[in-house]
Amino acid sequence: MFNPRRVIFEERALNYELGNSILEEFKDKKLEILYSKNGRITGIPGKTNSEMYFEGKSTLVVGVRKNLNFATCKPSAHYQLPIASGCNGMCEYCYLNTQMGKKPYVKIYVNIDEILQRTQEYIDERKPNITIFEGAATSDPIPVEYYSRSLKNSIEFFGNNELGRFRFVTKFTDIDTILGLRHNGNTTVRFSINTDRIINAYEHNTTAVIERITAAKKLYIDGYKIGFIIAPVFLYEGWEEEYGSLINLIALKFPRGNITFEVISHRFTKRAKENIINIFSKTTLPMDEEARKFKFGQFGYGKYIYPDEKMKLLKNFFKSKLLEKFEENSINYII
Ligand code: SF4
User: Do 53 and 103 meet the contact criterion of CB atoms below 8 Å apart?
Assistant: First the structure.
C-alpha cells in the first residue's frame, strides 16, 4: 500500500463523499496536506532531477477526472480505463518514466461513478462486440486501491456487464480488497514478474516475486483470469537458470494451470536511457547501444533490442521451458 509523504487535494474533489473520506483518513496522520484550488499541482519540492523524481513518487494527488474521453489502448485492449495515474514503485525501466513529467506524482480520481458511466457509453457504441478496457495503462492501480476503491468498483461494474471486459497489470500484492467480489470472470489480472536478481537491482519499492506469485494464486482461486508478464527479460550470465527457476516456481503454484504468459525482452529508446541516467545516475541497467540492434518503431522513434541471434536464443528458451510446464495456448507472445 502506498504511504505518501504528502497528499494534495484538488478542492473540487472535496465535493465528493470519497474525497472527504480520504481527507478524514489522512488528517490523523503525520504528513503534509495541501490543497489545489484550480487543479494545478504545486508544492512538491526538489532541485535535482532525482529529488524531484523521489518527491513526486512520494506524493498522492486526490482529484476529479474531468476528461472523460478515453485513450485507445491497442493492441491489448480497446480503451484505457482512467482510474489512476502514476505509481509509487520506482522501477528504473518503468514505461511511465518518460510520460509523467519531472515530478511523477500518483493521482487517484474520486468520480469513479462518472468514469464508469462513460465506460458504459463506450461499450454501447461497440455493441454487440465485446469491449476491453485496460486499467493499468498509466499506473499500477493496486497500491492506491486502499484509498480509491476504484478497482473494486470497476471489477463489480464489469462483473455485471455482458459486453465489457476489464484487465490490469500489477507488481503489487495488496489484493485482499478485491477478493470475494462478483467479477464473473470478466476481469483478468496480470502480474509483471522477473527474477529476484533483476527485481532487487531495478524494481525499487515494489514487492518480491514470490509474493506476486502468491497473490496471483489467491486471485486465481477466487476465479479471476490470471496472466504473467515476464518482463523485461535480460540476458545476463546465468539467465537461463534463473528464468527457468522462475517458471518452475509458477508451475509449482499453478500445476498445468489455465494461465497465460507474455514474455518481453529488454529494449530501450535513447530518450528513455537519458531519462534513466538523469534520475538513477549510478544505474547498472545494460543500455549499451553497441551491444544491441536498432529497430525503427511505429511511432517515429527507434528502440534498441537484442540482436537477432540473442533474440532467437531467448525465444527458443522461453518457448520450450513454458511448454514443458504449460499448454501451448498459454503463451500469448514472446518478443
Ligand atoms: S510498478 Fe509498474 S508502473 Fe510502477 S514504477 Fe514499476 S513499472 Fe512503473
Answer: yes
Q: Which residue has the cell 465528493?
A: 16
**Which pLDDT tens digit goes with each residue over 131-153?**
999 999 999 999 999 999 999 99
- How many Cβ atoms sit within 10 Å of the Cβ of residue 95? 12
**Bridge partner list, 131:** 164
Q: Identify the residue whose cell numbers are 506524482.
A: 105
139, 145, 171: residue to mutate for ligand 1 pocket, most atoms within 8 A of CB: 171
For residues 136 and 86, the answer to whether their CB atoms sit within 8 Å is no
Give nearest CA residue, ligand 1 atom 1.
89
pLDDT in tens, 12-43: 999 999 999 999 999 989 899 999 999 899 99
Q: Ligand 1: which of 206, 212, 229 to mutate, judged by most atoms within 8 Å of the beta carbon?
A: 206
Beta strand spans in the chain (E): 6-10, 32-36, 59-63, 79-80, 84-85, 90-91, 106-109, 131-134, 164-170, 187-193, 203-204, 225-233, 260-265, 293-296, 302-305, 331-334
> What pTM was computed for the model?
0.96
CB-based contact 93:303 (threshold 8 Å): no
**Residue 333, strand partner residues:** 262
Contact 265, 229 (CB under 8 A): no
DSSP 325: H
Ligand 1 atom 6 nearest Cα: 91
**Spacing of C-alpha 235 from chain mean position:** 23
